[in-house]
Amino acid sequence: MKTTRSSRAKLNSITTLANQIITTVTGLIIPRMMLGAFGSALYGATTSIAQFLSYISLLESGVGRAARAALYKPLADRDSEKVSKVYFAIVRFFRYVAIIFCVYTILLAFSYYDIANVREISREYVIFLVIAISLSTLIEYLCGISNMTLINADQRKYITNSAIIVTRILNTVLILVLINLGSGIITVKLGSSLIIILRPLFLSWYVKKHYTLRKTSRVKTGRRDDALPQKWTGMSQHIAYFVHSNTDVVLLTVFSDLRLVAVYAIYSLVTISIRNIVFSLAGGLEAELGDMYAKGEQETLTRKYKQYQFIMSFSSVLLFGVTALMILPFVLLYTSGITDVNYFQPAFALLLILGEVLNCLALPCSTLPVSCNQLKKTRWGAYGEAVINIVFSCALIWWNPLLSVAIGTLTAEVFKLFYYSVYASKRIIKNSVFRQLLRHTLVFAAVLLFGFSGIFLFPLLRVQNYFIWILYAIPATVIALGISLAIMRICYGDELKITLKRTIALFRRA
Q1: Most-buried pick from 224, 357, 389, 505 (CB within 10 A)?
Q2: pLDDT tens track for 318-377
Q3: Which residues have a Cβ under 8 Å from the Cβ of 508 and sit 6 or more positions away?
Q4: Three-state SS for 295?
Q5: Are 45 and 258 spatial neighbours (Cβ–Cβ below 8 Å)?
Q6: Per-domain residue ranges for the chain?
Q7: What's the rounded Cα separation, in Å, for the pair 423 and 425?
Q8: Could you give phi then psi for residue 213, rounded to 5 degrees?
Q9: pTM summary value
Q10: Is 39 helix (H, G, I), strand (E, B) or coil?
Q11: Which residues, including other chains, have CB under 8 Å from residue 488's CB and lie 6 or more apart?
Q12: pLDDT for 63-114, tens place per residue?
């Protein structure tokens, strides 16, 4: 059984990484095409609308987290009756969410024009644009989320990753064709939304084929919470997390200009892509740790947790170090020819990078409460993260909109890392809090040093095209790799030795 779990974890990690690479590539292609075709203001509007629409999905992950936590043990015990109860509780819940989402979309469609002070397009155009963007989310609620939750909890995330990769590639091809044909942005967004239906249809077929789910296991009225005992705790925590994650674009939309939303979106495109690549290296982490905890394998759980901490720390220094050195010339090259707003924002870029570094470092310890079904015990960590972000962002918004939201996010991430590191070390893993926080501080300081170096070196670089950018990125990567290995030697000596031995053995077999 351990071999199966190990092989699934590896497959999950590989497909998650592949998914993120595809996402990063397509994510770089589409915004540049849309910026060139429609301008910063209209692209900023689509980003902002998507952000507003995503607020309704805070209900999704709240229940999703509680459902995954409730599924780990029955899946490990092969209890099909309990699995069926949880599954159909999710199905029923998201039917209600779909109805609420439809109402919310209509309200947003008729109010967004005034909320964002849109002047570039008409009110009617905004209404149709909101509806076109919303369709993909509605389809997911009606068809896909319950199946995705079950598959991922069963350590088969490679299935959902494969479906996402295929639909993302098809979606990108369709968007490029429509833009080259001169289609309007509503047509582009409508086509993008409709193609997403392929993914939930495939996942629905897969679940019917591979799982025995008895409809007689539907939870009866009055006993609905039995299947998801931490549903409301999970929901409230994710509301807090979602507010923290999506405060920035909303505040920029309301208190600044849609062009600044475009600036934020481009820099975030880079930093979030790197963050997701780092996250992908821990693909299947939550389900794997959940399976270990459900089976009482404490020693294995502790060892695996430390391995994931090493992976997150090493990849954060390496990837975000290179990002900090090369992000400014990349963004200016990426937005060349677009002059309706200033895309040179070095301080903002550094703050965003540092916030994402802390987010990556916190992943292992913030995942443990979900894996171990302890959502309720960590609810104040999620609440505090959201409150800190909002307070700092709102207090500084009049000083500098871009820097204020970045400072709010960074401050909240500091709190998050400290809170979950202490909780995991004291309540679950039982290791030294001081040693763990010291390791995080060294990683953070290294990326900060890379960031200052990138700002200092930028005037010396002459990057006229992507080929020259790549030539500069190669030595930057070598330097970041050397510093990463040095820090890992200090902080994770045993884990580094094991990784190097495995890497050498892999090359010898090849």
Answers
A1: 357
A2: 999 999 999 999 988 888 887 777 888 899 999 999 999 998 888 888 777 766 666 667
A3: none
A4: coil
A5: yes
A6: 2-509
A7: 6
A8: -115, 115
A9: 0.69
A10: helix
A11: 310, 313, 314, 317, 495, 496
A12: 666 677 677 778 777 778 888 888 888 788 777 777 888 888 888 888 888 8
